[in-house]
Amino acid sequence: MKIIHYCQHVLGMSHFFRSLEIAKALDKEEVLFVAGGERPNQPLPPNVEYRQLPGLCMNENFGGLMPTEEGRELEEVKTERSATLFKIFEEEKPDVFLIELFPFGRKAFRFELLPVLDAVKEGRFGDVKVVCSLRDILVERNDGGKHEARVVKYLNKYFDLLLIHADPKIAALDETFQAFKQIEIPCEYTGFAARKPAENKRDKIRADLEVSADEKLLIASAGGGKVGGPLMQATLESFIRLNSEKCRLLMLSGPFLDDDKYAALCATAKPYKNITIQRFASDFTDLLTAGDAMISMAGYNTCMDILTSCIPSAVFPFAQNHEQRMRAERLAKYIPLKILDSTDMLIMTTAISDLLGQNRNRSDHGINLKGANKSADLIRNLRKI
């Protein structure tokens, strides 16, 4: 089976890594992973061929699309992307078109998606099944229901299946999408699509990081990095004030953190031998098994990594919308999870000390984390119908 998997991340990296986890689960299939954001330095599984569209992204205020390549015009990039995506379909004629988030989000990318979906519906590429791959919680909209009406219209017209990557006891789609009952295509909860850390690597990773047996390792992560700068700065300054010789800090700023902000973090940390700052770690989930505590944002992937690694954690939800806070508050009912707010940023030393004093969380939280495998099974079964 040949699958074109379309994923467009514009701010963070959760969309990319969740999609990649599903592509891994489709290990017996040929997956063309078509992406249009900046590519993280992450190895791909053997069944996945990466196709890069000319890059587009948004700023942290969601102020509209802009090219990732300096000097390019937006309309020029959009025209090239649309032609490239359509050509891929003409040449590859896939069995399945798997689209991450759209039509629930990524409205700005209708210019390239709708021409392909119209052509699929007309049968120009053969018998192609269209599947929407959707996260747990949607961003709020205040437009009188226009967005939801448009979503339902596109789903019922173009799509064959909706996969909801959530455990409904944590987050059910109808909580953040009021028109759920108007969806006519099959809708399946898959469980959360979570990355799994490697087993029995804690000692080796700690040795590689030169963390001794009597030291505590705090990991701080900003996800993609575009909106995590203030959290990283507060964590770094608080860790320095903590002044503990038995603690080490590994900070992952995110690959998309502004260069000047990254340089400022590095300059602040330079005098301290127990602080390491990197932009990105491809083995992030493995690192968490070697850490003793983590401070991070509350994106989808990071929260799943907390669940799979069982690391004591504090999260600072993105304030622009309710998605991250809602997810964190729901998960905090099942695991010990400190949710930070703006006042906590002033007293981070207390939060860090509390975290480093905790034991590792229990793994029997009962939350369904098998979403990638179930998604793969449902996609395969769709072709058998």
Question: Brief description of this entry?
Answer:
This protein is α/β, with parallel strands linked by helices and 385 residues long. It has helices at residues 14-25, 74-92, 110-121, 146-158, 202-208, 229-242, 259-269, 284-290, 300-309, 323-331, 348-356, 371-384; strands at residues 2-7, 30-35, 48-52, 56-58, 65-67, 96-100, 129-134, 161-164, 187-189, 216-221, 247-252, 275-278, 293-296, 313-315, 337-339. The strands form 3 sheets. It has a 7-stranded parallel beta sheet, with helices on both faces. A 6-stranded parallel beta sheet has the order 12-11-10-13-14-15, with helices on both faces.
Global geometry: globular
Work out the count of structural domains.
2
Number of strands: 15
- What spatial order of strands do you see in the largest sheet? 3-2-1-6-7-8-9
How far do the termini sit from each other?
14 Å
Secondary-structure map with pairings?
Elements: E1 2-7, H1 14-25, E2 30-35, E3 48-52, E4 56-58, E5 65-67, H2 74-92, E6 96-100, H3 110-121, E7 129-134, H4 146-158, E8 161-164, E9 187-189, H5 202-208, E10 216-221, H6 229-242, E11 247-252, H7 259-269, E12 275-278, H8 284-290, E13 293-296, H9 300-309, E14 313-315, H10 323-331, E15 337-339, H11 348-356, H12 371-384
Parallel strand pairs: 1-2, 1-6, 2-3, 6-7, 7-8, 8-9, 10-11, 10-13, 11-12, 13-14, 14-15
Antiparallel strand pairs: 4-5
Report on this model:
This protein is an alpha/beta fold and 385 residues long. The chain has two domains: 2-192 and 369-384, Glycogen Phosphorylase B (Rossmann fold); 202-356, Glycogen Phosphorylase B (Rossmann fold, 3-Layer(aba) Sandwich). Helices cover 36% and strands 17% of the residues. It has helices at 14-25, 74-92, 110-121, 146-158, 202-208, 229-242, 259-269, 284-290, 300-309, 323-331, 348-356, 371-384; strands at residues 2-7, 30-35, 48-52, 56-58, 65-67, 96-100, 129-134, 161-164, 187-189, 216-221, 247-252, 275-278, 293-296, 313-315, 337-339. A hairpin with a 6-residue loop joins strand 4 (56-58) and strand 5 (65-67). Helix 2 (74-92) packs parallel to helix 3. Keywords: Transferase. Residues 248-333 form the Glycosyl transferase family 28 C-terminal domain.
